[in-house]
Design a protein that fits this description.
single chain; alpha+beta; Pnp Oxidase, Chain A; 6-stranded antiparallel beta sheet; 4-stranded antiparallel beta sheet; elongated
Length: 218
């Protein structure tokens, strides 16, 4: 992934937080017919290694797991908040017109070797972890044990698990760092007027990056 220095995010807790907050990832492997991607929720776990491990599962009917290359690292792409940035927000639009729109976004790329898992106890533990995390905000939360055991057992036969031991993490936070303070304030004002969840999320990211920049400069 191309990452200009201004957009490089290396803080491990920040990268981990995004993977946990936006678990639906594009899971990419090199297969016999070329690159193959599935969009699946992944569970990030700190296993004591430098970057941790990702765990997921796919349908047994999904042939991606059968012939994924073991010689090339798999890739999981996590996409966080994103938003269109209008050129009309920049003061320069009325001064000389030399402005164009752009798109702000934050993403994490996790690379590592793939291990296929078909052990039933591993799959049960993985499904319980996945559902417990996502159900945490519900009252009452649904649990794997709420479904009949024989029903769950029958479903287990239709899935295959995998682990991706992360050995390289890349974070790209494209949140207007290449603009001066005046332009960043104008973008924040434009996003504030929209009053949508997406605009508020991007506004907070720009403000956080601007705060870090001021601290580094000061």
């Amino acid at each position: 992934m191309y990452i200009p220095n201004a957009n490089l995010e290396t803080r491990l807790p920040v990268l981990q937080q995004l993977m946990e907050a936006y678990p639906l990832a594009a899971f990419v492997t090199l297969n016999k017919n070329g690159l193959t991607a599935s969009h699946i929720p992944l569970v990030y776990e700190n296993d004591g290694s430098e970057f941790g491990v990702l765990k997921g599962h796919v349908s047994r009917a999904n042939t991606q797991w059968k012939d994924a290359s073991t010689e090339v690292d798999a890739l999981a792409i996590f996409s966080g908040p994103q938003h269109y940035i209008s050129a009309g927000w920049y003061p320069g639009k009325d001064e000389d017109g030399k402005e164009v729109p752009t798109w702000n976004y934050v993403v994490v790329h996790a690379y590592g070797p793939l291990r296929i898992v078909q052990d039933e106890s591993w799959l049960m533990a993985h499904l319980a972890s996945l559902t417990d995390r996502q159900e945490a905000g519900f009252s009452p939360p649904w649990k794997l044990s709420d479904a009949p055991p024989d029903f769950i057992a029958s479903l287990l036969k239709g899935i295959v698990g995998f682990e991706l031991s992360i050995r390289r993490l890349e974070g790209k936070w494209k949140v207007s760092q290449n603009r001066d303070q005046r332009d960043r304030q104008a973008v924040v004002a434009g996003l504030s007027e929209m009053q949508t969840p997406a605009s508020r999320a991007m506004k907070e990211l720009i403000e956080e990056a601007s705060g870090r920049s001021k601290t580094a400069d000061g």
